[in-house]
Design a protein that fits this description.
With 116 residues, the chain is mainly beta. It has one helix at residues 66-72, and strands at 3-9, 14-15, 20-27, 30-38, 58-65, 85-92, 99-105, 110-112. The strands form two sheets. Strands 2-1-7-8 form a four-stranded mixed sheet, with no helix packed on it. Strands 4-3-5-6 form a four-stranded antiparallel sheet. InterPro entries: Hydroxyisourate_hydrolase (IPR014306), Thyroxine_BS (IPR023418), Transthyretin/HIU_hydrolase (IPR000895), Transthyretin/HIU_hydrolase_d (IPR023416), Transthyretin/HIU_hydrolase_sf (IPR036817), Transthyretin_CS (IPR023419).
């Protein structure tokens, strides 16, 4: 089933196209970079982050460059800005299920949930 993400820009009311994201595996406080990618025009990665054969039970981290995205969109952010990078740590317990990690974000707030 695999792992995927999707980011919606709640300030502008659409996908967060062009946002930079990094995926890590984690073990305790240690994090290992798996890949960096840029969200496409629909606010998603072009391919699953892990497909159903390569996703493993364990802990992961997605880091979203929120400030960089909003600056690139021409949003004037205060210095220092309220949100810089949003880091989401989550666990995968069942590799036979799909793990979808959406992010709803503005320069001042974010929310997430386990999607389908």
């Amino acid at each position: 089933m695999g792992l995927s993400t999707h980011v919606l820009d709640t300030m502008h009311g659409g996908p967060a196209a062009g946002m930079e994201v990094a995926l890590y595996t984690t073990q305790g406080d240690a994090a290992t970079l798996v890949k960096r990618f840029t969200l496409n025009s629909d606010g998603r990665s072009d391919a699953p982050l892990y497909d159903n054969h390569s996703l493993e039970v364990g802990t992961y981290r997605l880091v979203f460059d929120v400030a960089g995205y909003f600056r690139a969109r021409g949003v004037k952010l205060p210095e220092p800005n309220f949100l810089n990078k949003v880091s989401l740590d989550f666990g995968v317990a069942h590799t036979d299920q799909h793990y979808h990690v959406p992010l709803l974000v503005s320069p001042w707030s974010y929310s997430t949930y386990r999607g389908s």
